[in-house]
Design goal:
InterPro entries: PEP-util_enz_mobile_dom, PEP-utilizing_PTS_enzyme, PEP_util_C, Phosphohistidine_dom_sf, PTS_EI, PTS_EI-like, PTS_EIN, PtsI_HPr-bd_sf. Belongs to the PEP-utilizing enzyme family. Keywords: Coiled coil, Cytoplasm, Kinase, Magnesium, Metal-binding, Phosphotransferase system, Sugar transport, Transferase, Transport. This is Phosphoenolpyruvate-protein phosphotransferase. This protein is α/β, with parallel strands linked by helices and about 550 residues long. It has three domains: about 1-25 and about 150-235, Phosphohistidine domain (Glucose Oxidase, domain 1, 3-Layer(bba) Sandwich), CATH 3.50.30; about 35-140, Orthogonal Bundle (Enzyme I, Chain A, domain 2); about 270-540, TIM Barrel (Alpha-Beta Barrel). About 45% of the residues lie in helices and about 15% in strands. The strands form two sheets. The protein has an eight-stranded mixed beta sheet. α13 links the parallel β12 and β13 (about 425-430). α1 crosses α5 and α15 crosses α17. The longest helix is centred in the first third of the chain and has 30 residues, at about 35-65. Bound molecules: phosphoenolpyruvate (PEP) and magnesium ion. Phosphoenolpyruvate binds next to β10 and α16.
Length: about 550
């Protein structure tokens, strides 16, 4: 038996075979193919699909980003129709009998070298577009390959690291848990694991070897351990630990239907955080008082290369609204950027993505995309108690601008005679020191605040939450943070408005008493943390 120790991200014990995740476009291998004709068909299908995706993107973007930006996709279309490029791919597949991925990558290199050198070539100055379109073809080719990798039997996934855009697509019926070599416990991949309740351990380093592929392993998410080929004693011990945990969960079930009230009678709301349609079921089982944070940006990552349409978003928000009945559902508008970029929308050349083009900045820059989301939220607001919240706010102007787009969306719906909640409540995330400092003024603009302690810690301490080297420094208990939360709570209450905390600190039961003393109105946590938090609240005197 081999024991590896990493950082615990999400609790639970799971047993299964280890399967390594290969990120298609990163690892292009040179593979000999028996049937070149079949490989050629595979390539042609991927090329047709690429053309279709580009066409869709081009149409979607023409209105939204302007004709100039839509041209980018036209250049990419030209590349996949270019004989110089295509003939080379076909030659490598048929003459050298090599796989399509390798043929595409090699042909692109050759194409850039020859055509890119010619001054009159359309490729000149568009090298990044060639890389983009190649990445798209490789991604499409890898979709088929990934399906083949998925086994019938559920397994434990191992990876070097996982992007949030990959973690969001993990199929919980197949992936029992995951372990990685690198990564940070504060990243959105970790947040997703906790939200979905997928046991996981990260930061196992180089000790997590590819040789372990297919071996039986146990993840102990409570202690941050991975046991490879566990011996009988460990197996028994882990099964027992799992049993004990299940018993604890069963005891917690008795708290369902009970109030979140301290022994001295102070009440606080406990809501749940979600990131997808699948998480709604977990919220219902958790007996949360509502959905305090719907991280809607994850909807933008479910289908690589494609953003969700108004209709698709509407269906998900409506489902959440109807499932929760009278209970509230707070939809945070897309907090894209940072470590949350959908595949195909990645931004090149950002030195500091966490303080870069993200959150409300992208929404206000791409107003059509923003309005599409607001229309979907508004339409769904006719089916339940929906509220809308803007992320990464730093100024009053951002809020007034965002509200203008909301009003425009309302006006359109009114004109179309589509039902929506005219009085939908509007809130902001408090995630930046700037928002803390102007929280008094901000409170006059909105109905509620939700403090995102993950980002607030990152921005207050000037520490990238995804930087694994900073794990020992990143301190959400820093006195500066606690003071900030207190300031915000006081300011918002002076205006008679509602305040919640939805960052990971909300679930930390060592902090519950402090938050109650501050008069925080609501804590919003991963669904699996609702009942443990209720238990803690009820024990406080
Ligand atoms: C936060 O920053 O604390 C938060 C809740 O938002 P996210 O973790 O999605 O950035
Ligand atoms: Mg945040």
């Amino acid at each position: 038996m081999i024991t590896l120790t990493g950082k615990k991200v999400s609790e639970g014990i799971v047993i299964g075979r280890l399967v390594f995740f290969n990120r298609g476009e990163r690892e292009v291998r040179r593979i000999y193919v028996e049937d070149a004709e079949k490989e050629l068909v595979r390539f042609q299908k991927a090329r047709v699909r690429t053309a279709e995706e580009l066409q869709e993107l081009c149409e979607e973007s023409a209105g939204e980003l302007g004709e100039t930006n839509a041209m980018i996709f036209e250049v990419q279309q030209m590349v996949i129709e270019d004989d110089a490029f295509l003939n080379q791919v076909v030659r490598i597949i048929t003459e050298q009998k090599l796989n399509a991925e390798y043929a595409v990558r090699e042909s692109a290199r050759e194409f850039l070298k020859t055509c890119g050198a010619r001054p009159e070539s359309y490729v000149r100055g568009h090298e990044a577009d060639v890389h983009d379109v190649v990445a798209r073809i490789l991604r499409i080719l890898s979709r088929g390959r990934k399906d083949r990798m998925i086994m019938d039997e559920p397994f434990i996934m191992a990876a070097r690291d996982l992007y949030p855009s990959e973690a969001v697509r993990l199929d919980k019926t197949k992936v029992l848990g995951f372990v990685t070599m690198y990564g940070s416990i504060n990243s959105h991949t970790a947040v997703l694991a906790r939200t979905k309740g997928i046991p996981s351990v990260i930061g196992l380093g180089e000790a997590l070897k590819k040789d372990y592929e297919g071996k039986m392993v146990i993840i102990d998410g409570f202690d941050g351990k991975l046991y490879i080929e566990p011996d009988q004693t460990t197996m028994e011990k882990m099964k027992q630990k799992k049993q004990q945990h299940m018993q604890k969960v069963e005891t917690l079930e008795r708290l369902k239907g009970k109030e979140n009230i301290t022994q001295s009678g102070q009440k606080i709301e406990v809501c749940a955080n979600i990131g997808s349609r699948e998480d709604i079921e977990r919220v219902l089982r958790s007996d949360a008082g509502g959905i305090g944070l719907f991280r809607s940006e994850f909807l933008y990552m479910e289908t690589p290369g494609r953003l969700p349409t108004e209709e698709q978003q509407f269906q998900v928000y409506r489902l959440a609204a109807e499932a929760m009945g009278a209970k509230k559902v707070v939809i945070r508008t897309a907090d894209l950027g940072g470590d949350k970029m959908p595949e195909g929308m990645e931004i090149q050349g950002e030195a500091n993505p966490m303080i870069g083009y993200r959150g409300i900045r992208i929404s206000l820059d791409k107003r059509e995309m923003f309005k599409t989301q607001l229309r979907a939220i508004l339409r769904a607001s006719a089916f339940g108690n929906l509220q809308v919240m803007f992320p990464m706010i730093t100024s009053i102007e951002e809020v007034t601008e965002a509200k203008k787009v909301l009003e425009r969306a309302k006006a359109e719906l009114k004109e179309e005679k589509t039902a929506y909640d005219e009085n939908i409540r509007v809130g902001v995330m408090i995630e930046t020191p700037a928002a803390v400092m102007i929280s008094g003024e901000l409170a006059r603009e909105v109905d509620f605040f939700s403090i995102g302690t993950n980002d607030l810690t990152q921005h207050t301490l000037a520490m990238d939450r995804t930087n694994r080297k900073l794990t020992g420094f990143y301190n959400p208990y820093h006195p500066a943070l606690i003071k900030m939360i207190r300031i915000v709570a006081n300011n918002v209450h002076l205006e008679g408005k509602h305040i919640s905390i939805c960052g990971d600190l909300a679930a930390d039961t060592d902090m519950t008493e402090t938050f109650l003393q501050m008069g925080i109105d609501e804590l919003s946590v991963a669904p699996g943390k609702v009942l443990p938090l209720r238990k803690k609240i009820r024990e406080i005197r």
